[in-house]
Design a protein that fits this description.
This protein is mainly alpha-helical and 277 residues long. The chain contains 14 helices and no strands. It has one domain.
């Protein structure tokens, strides 16, 4: 689970960070430049404290160490680790991106967000830059997980892993944007943000078959809900790609699901950002 600190954590003073970002925006105007400036600002705390990425790896590694050995190799199309790792990486991406709105909640409480709203930065860039930032910690954590499990019964297929991470990058952008939208809606009510986030995240994970496969033996209502979960299609594509296969239909469904989440997140996030005051 990602525990990366927010943009204000690494700057010490939100006002200083905001002023610095405004200066950058004045030097390089335009949507792309604004988006880049926001993304760099959000990444600075992580670059200053890279140990935060390692700390975020504790929970995924615990799942790998304690849960994977309980899964039988039979019926999973290979080793249990080969089946389990892609789901854990997707879980890390979901949990990390879904929590990032808490950083925006902190900025709202300290007044830093309001100062950004009256800066020359485009509001769309404020959200898109923050959402794109989610790709970097997701990639870093995925690389670390793959590096840890490769010496064991995990077969590394670099091409499939890279394509799988590209799909997860789209998914992370969408979830991050939805998390920021939730933070804006629940401004001043941190309990509301955490209640919604925690209520939704675990059903999404369980219905995606992250920990246990959802097969024909599952109840009909459970399979129906699983079919509505975009994360399930993404994880199926990840498992195929990480195993070194590229089934066109499975990968296409996973990519479309990730793209759908990204579009939904950006549309909802942009509308919420433009209405924020």
């Amino acid at each position: 689970m990602s525990t990366l600190t927010g943009s204000t954590a690494g700057t010490g003073d939100p006002a200083i960070a905001t002023a610095s970002l405004q200066q950058d925006a004045a030097v390089a105007p335009g949507f792309l430049a604004d988006t880049w400036n926001v993304m760099v600002r959000e990444l600075k705390p992580m670059l200053r404290e890279p140990a935060s990425v390692l700390f975020a790896m504790v929970q995924p590694l615990v799942f790998l160490a304690l849960f994977a050995p309980l899964l039988p190799d039979e019926g999973l199309g290979g080793s249990a680790l080969q089946w389990f790792v892609p789901g854990i990486i997707a879980m890390t991406a979901l949990m990390g991106a879904s929590m990032t709105g808490s950083n925006l909640s902190l900025e709202i409480n300290t007044g830093s967000h309001e100062r950004l709203l009256v800066s020359p930065l485009r509001r769309s860039s404020l959200l898109v830059g923050r959402a794109l930032k989610e790709v970097v910690p997701m990639l870093a954590q995925a690389v670390l997980i793959v590096a840890v499990v490769t010496p064991f019964s995990f077969d590394l297929h670099p091409g499939g892993v890279l394509l799988g991470l590209a799909i997860l990058a789209l998914f992370s952008v969408g979830i991050g944007a939805l998390s920021f939208a939730l933070a804006l809606v629940s401004a001043g009510q941190d309990w509301l943000f955490w209640t919604v986030q925690q209520t939704l995240i675990f059903p999404l994970l369980l219905l995606a078959g992250v920990l246990l496969p959802i097969d024909d033996s599952a109840p009909g209502w459970l399979r129906f809900l699983a079919d509505l979960n975009p994360l399930g299609y993404i994880i199926e594509a990840e498992r195929a790609l990480f195993a070194g296969t590229v089934p066109a239909d499975t990968v296409a469904y996973g990519a479309l699901a990730a793209a759908g989440v990204a579009v939904l997140g950006l549309v909802v996030g942009l509308r919420t950002m433009r209405r924020s005051s």
